[in-house]
Write a structure and sequence with these properties.
Bound molecules: iron/sulfur cluster
Strand content: 5-15%
Number of strands: 5
């Protein structure tokens, strides 16, 4: 049996507003994330997952396999050589997927913004949903980044 009629019904149902809202609510409160880490923002991420900030109360969990993740947090400098790998990782993640650019290095290239080898902002490689500025950003800021992303998802943006 062809899957096309089933696919059509599925698409129609998921376009119905209450269903769409429910799906977005579920997505917003079950973010499975992986981090692409190349710099010293990492200790802030470690604090985020520890007991004091306990980001899991937002339904977010760090996950080791990117093919099951719907969020990638990019921290640190991305070089032009690494940009292709970052894109490859992003392309392997299932849809819908989201990106947080964490820290000045990821957002603009940071201290190395005018270097010949550095990407001046990861938004030149992958679409970014939320920017969390700072060098490094505090865990509270990262939590705020999660909340902004959840708001965006729930609004269907
Ligand atoms: S933004 Fe600052 S803390 Fe984060 S990776 Fe760059 S230099 Fe390190």
């Amino acid at each position: 049996m062809s899957l096309k009629p089933i696919e059509r019904i599925r698409t129609k149902i998921s376009c119905w507003k209450p269903i769409k809202d429910m799906l977005n609510w579920g997505r917003a409160w079950s973010l499975w994330w992986v981090h692409y880490e190349t710099g010293c923002c990492c200790p802030e991420i470690m604090s985020l997952v520890a007991a004091r900030f306990d980001h899991e109360r937002l339904g977010a969990i760090p996950f080791p396999t990117l093919r099951e993740c719907d969020l990638i947090i990019i921290e640190g400098v991305v070089t032009k050589k690494m940009a292709k790998r970052l894109r490859m990782i992003y392309d392997q993640m299932p849809d819908p997927k989201y990106v947080i650019a964490l820290g000045d290095c990821a957002i603009t290239g940071g201290f190395w913004w005018d270097s010949y080898s550095v990407v001046q902002g990861v938004d030149k490689v992958v679409p970014v949903d939320v920017y969390v500025p700072g060098c490094p950003p505090r865990p509270e800021q990262i939590l705020q980044g999660f909340r902004l992303l959840q708001k965006k998802i729930m609004e269907g943006k």
